[in-house]
């Protein structure tokens, strides 16, 4: 199981993780009325007593926007300063993942977002690789990615993850590692918790923000790094068949980082992945503070 960081932020206090518990009647547990974030950090390999957080500002902005969809006013600045204190209290010793969550914390029934208490909590886990860095096998899900007219897909809202969970379990129980979801128009949208990229004839193609994707922060970083490396990036609707004959396919996400796809259904993808490799090496070097080309992406927390 996961190794949890010792201290959690819960009900406006920093307390031991084990003591941070909720009632079984908590509203969000019943209706998925929550929204969460997920960001990575590492102890600075070059400087003791310093923790590096990747794109903290963007993660806090996205969570603040997600909170807005829940009728909860929580500023990005408030989230950011609480996360900084959370890191100082925990003094993590190895690579970790922070999970901030906003949720309807009232006890009681009736789905709604008005006239109901909300709250904000944070916990963390130690986290190395989430998916195999050597590559994963994927299947197309029989479940379709939700549409933005059904729920706010630009928020990372808890209830949306029933579809991700159905798709992931369907994939794993049928012998694959991951699921690729198509949207209601039948175009490629994303994986269960990652965005997707394909390389065709040297161009990097990824479904645009209008394809019912979560606007991933890793996706945004990958697009910027590719453009800086002189790779043409095209954001456009992507067909299922294009993935099957792509030169390279990879998934991007905070937990998954850049994970190559080695197989989709019964189609094997080439093992030579120069663009995936280049982008992965670059992103890793930046997150580990070995490459200083994007200092604005690295937030330093002093312990
Ligand atoms: N799509 C979904 C559904 C996700 O849960 C995630 C993970 N947050 C992503 C894409 C990738 O987003 P990010 O790069 O910001 O982690």
From TrEMBL:
Biological process terms from the Gene Ontology for this record are:
amino acid biosynthetic process; branched-chain amino acid biosynthetic process
| Catalysed reaction, written as an equation | L-leucine + 2-oxoglutarate = 4-methyl-2-oxopentanoate + L-glutamate; L-valine + 2-oxoglutarate = 3-methyl-2-oxobutanoate + L-glutamate; L-isoleucine + 2-oxoglutarate = (S)-3-methyl-2-oxopentanoate + L-glutamate
Q: Would the keyword Transferase be found if you checked this record's keyword annotation?
A: yes
Provide the alphabetized UniProt keywords: Amino-acid biosynthesis, Aminotransferase, Branched-chain amino acid biosynthesis, Pyridoxal phosphate, Transferase
Q: Which cofactor does it need?
A: pyridoxal 5'-phosphate
Q: What class of enzyme is it?
A: transferase
Q: What is this protein called?
A: Branched-chain-amino-acid aminotransferase
- Biological classification of the source: Bacteria, Bacillati, Cyanobacteriota, Cyanophyceae, Oscillatoriophycideae
Gene it is expressed from: ilvE
């Amino acid at each position: 199981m996961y190794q949890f960081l010792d201290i959690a932020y819960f009900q406006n206090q920093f307390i031991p993780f084990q003591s941070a518990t909720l009632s079984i009647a908590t509203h969000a547990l019943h209706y998925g009325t929550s929204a969460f974030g997920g960001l990575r950090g590492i102890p600075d390999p070059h400087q003791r007593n310093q923790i590096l957080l990747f794109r903290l500002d963007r993660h806090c902005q996205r969570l603040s926007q997600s909170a807005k969809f829940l009728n909860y006013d929580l500023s990005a600045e408030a989230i950011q300063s609480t996360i900084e204190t959370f890191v100082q209290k925990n003094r993590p010793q190895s690579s970790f993942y922070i999970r901030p969550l906003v949720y309807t914390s009232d006890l009681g029934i009736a789905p709604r977002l008005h006239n109901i208490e909300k709250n904000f909590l944070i916990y963390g886990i130690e986290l190395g690789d989430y998916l195999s860095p050597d590559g994963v096998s994927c299947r197309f899900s029989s479940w379709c990615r939700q549409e933005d007219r059904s729920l706010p897909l630009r928020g990372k809202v808890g209830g949306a993850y029933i579809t991700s969970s159905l798709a992931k379990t369907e994939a794993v129980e049928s012998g694959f590692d991951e699921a690729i979801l198509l949207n209601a128009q039948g175009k490629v949208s994303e994986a269960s918790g990652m965005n997707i990229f394909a390389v065709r004839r040297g161009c990097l193609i990824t479904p645009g923000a209008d394809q019912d994707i979560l606007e991933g922060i890793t996706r945004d970083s990958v697009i910027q790094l590719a453009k800086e490396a002189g790779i043409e990036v095209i954001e456009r609707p992507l067909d299922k068949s294009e993935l099957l004959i792509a030169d390279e396919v990879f998934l991007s996400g905070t937990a998954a980082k850049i994970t190559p796809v080695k197989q989709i259904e019964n189609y094997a993808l080439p093992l030579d992945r120069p663009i995936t490799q280049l982008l992965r090496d670059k992103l890793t070097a930046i997150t580990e503070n070995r490459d200083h080309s994007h200092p604005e992406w690295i937030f330093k927390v002093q312990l």
